[in-house]
Write a structure and sequence with these properties.
The protein has 152 residues and is mainly alpha-helical. Helices cover 80% and strands 0% of the residues. The protein is built from 4 helices and no strands. The chain is elongated, with a radius of gyration of 17 Å. It starts with 10 loop residues before the first helix and ends with a helix.
């Protein structure tokens, strides 16, 4: 398997995983600090999906950091296959959660005029924006993992 930017055990791979974890954590923090996120199923789904994203990304951050410290390349075909499946599953869940939350945010707060607390509306929008940023980074990682598996 070829070793290019973003593959497991590289600095760029570690950076991508760290950004995924940070964006997902920020989305959870922004959503969880509102008073009524639990009234909307899409927002609860966003928290659950981003929680899964944090666990997955943090585990891979730890794995990448260990590989970098030991100067090992993580190109075992079985391990890369696991990364591909995990990345595609979390990418799909993250996109679905971010899209549904964005739809509810636009519908409820812009179209229905239901935003009486401006600070809360901004937190919802921030949580959705961070969820999309997390999805972009996981999408990049999933494409790199698929490319790595196909090149191997």
């Amino acid at each position: 398997m070829k070793n290019f930017a973003g593959t497991p055990g590289t600095v760029t791979g570690l950076l991508l995983r760290l950004l995924q974890c940070l964006f997902a954590s920020g989305s959870i923090a922004a959503m969880a600090t509102t008073k009524s996120f639990f009234n909307f199923t899409a927002f609860s789904y966003l928290i659950a999906s981003m929680g899964l994203q944090v666990f997955w990304s943090f585990g891979l951050v730890f794995l990448d950091a260990c590989a970098l410290a030991k100067k090992k390349v993580l190109h075992n075909p079985v391990l890369v296959s696991l990364f591909v499946v995990g990345d595609w599953v979390t990418a799909t869940l993250s996109l679905a959660a971010a899209s549904s939350s964005a739809g509810i945010t636009i519908l409820y707060f812009n179209d229905l005029g239901g935003c009486s607390v401006r600070e809360e509306c901004q937190k919802y929008q921030l949580a959705v924006a961070l969820a999309f940023l997390s999805w972009i980074t996981i999408g990049i990682s999933s494409l790199i993992m698929f490319w790595t598996l196909a090149a191997g």
